[in-house]
Amino acid sequence: MTTRTNFKAYASTMMKIFTDAQCQELVLAAEEAMWRTGTDFYDKESLEILKKAGCWVDGKRVRIPAHITERALRSCQKHVVLCNSRTGARELFVEGNNAYFGSGPCTPFTRNPFTNERHRATRQSVGWATKVLDALPNIDYAMSLGIVQDVPLLVSDRHEFEQQILHTEKPIITVCVDAWGQADVIKMAEIVAGGEEELRKNPFICLYAEPISPGMHCLEAAQKLVMGAKKGLPTIYTPCIMAGGTAPATMAGVMVQGLCESLSGLVLSQCTREGAPFIMGGVYTILDMGTTIFSYGAPELHLLLAGLADVAHYLNIPMFGTAGCTDSCIIDEQAGIEAALSIAMTNMSGANLNHDTGYSEYGTTSNLDLVVIADEVLGMARRLTSGIRVDQETLALEVIERVGPGGSYANDDHTDEHAEENYAPRLVNRAARNIWEKSGGKTLTQVANEKVRDIINYHEPAPLPKDIAAKIRDIVENAVGHMPGEDE
């Protein structure tokens, strides 16, 4: 039998928005903007690092020569791996077209799955959310799905991380208020991993920072980016921009604005520590002119991020994407359409770490029912991109001859051996109407909500050792909040 060494290329269903020539044009335009216009940095240490590297610094405005950007693109780590926090197993290979999915962070509100009440996120709601993320088979990593607001906000990030690390062994992407919060979270992660070097070798956390569009690297974002580079920990740097609001109205202009912000962050990261693991990305969408919202359900978001994945692949840099979210205020038909479309497009584009699953109300409210529904959609989307295997075994000529005209394949061994080729739904109902009615005639959202409650009530995440949990609690209890702009 002849084997195809490039089987994946034949079997996978992938999509591209840009050609390599267009990707190059976008990158060169971003490099020109980084020099011609520049971006503003508000952190003194960052300005010193960039000036020493050869960038043109005038006050807070930094213009980066193209050769420095090119050097940073060559030096950054192309192979980023995230690990299991309990075992250290290397699980997520953030590279190539590998597409992983997780929740989003920092929603001010959440929907209580037991009462359906919309309320401010709390320690409990983040713990519940993390437990659900831990239990779902197609969710690969965790973000908090809430800003903890039943504690002082300046130390809320420590409480969020504690709830996450207690309730999941999956990798965690952590969003911190400032550099002090990030330092505490790293300290907690090092305790779990067994030391600073162990965490660097097998990181189970990924740090997160974002510029303020258009073109501003605020004090907190720059400090967190520099700290991540010094520690050698994977760091996501993600613009959140709106066409017609904080970026040009044209889709290509949005790409250039976003790339300018991401790549100037990359330069700071690499000038701080050459080879520091850096993940580019963004939430590129539109300013909806009818409502003035930052839209999470617009088709332009999916189109822009699929295009950004093409550029990331062209540059060979890991990519942070967005999927599984909706502008709808409730989990209804609109939510299903928007979440499913984004998941399918994102999975086919091959963006690597895709967040915000479970976002509703244009990113203001987390909803665990949507997370469970998205988990099912993810299973379907991954079946789509697994393609169709074509070889002597799957062509099944001998089976066709054995069964013959008028026969049945149902009891043939070949059918049992290849049953896994068909996606088996866990949530979607395919039963005949009379069976569906006898089982309660429930809607998809009702079934999803029941599953959420069941996970919260009965799922038991792999526990942390009690002494480790106690050390983390001590850091959380003694955390000190700092006012924005306060000097170290």
UniProtKB/TrEMBL annotation:
Keyword Flavoprotein: no
Protein name from the UniProt record: Trimethylamine methyltransferase
Family, per entry: Belongs to the trimethylamine methyltransferase family.
UniProt keyword annotation of Translocase present: no
Sorted UniProt keywords: Methyltransferase, Transferase
GO biological process: methanogenesis; methylation
GO molecular function (one): methyltransferase activity
InterPro entries listed in its UniProt record: MttB-like_sf, MTTB_MeTrfase
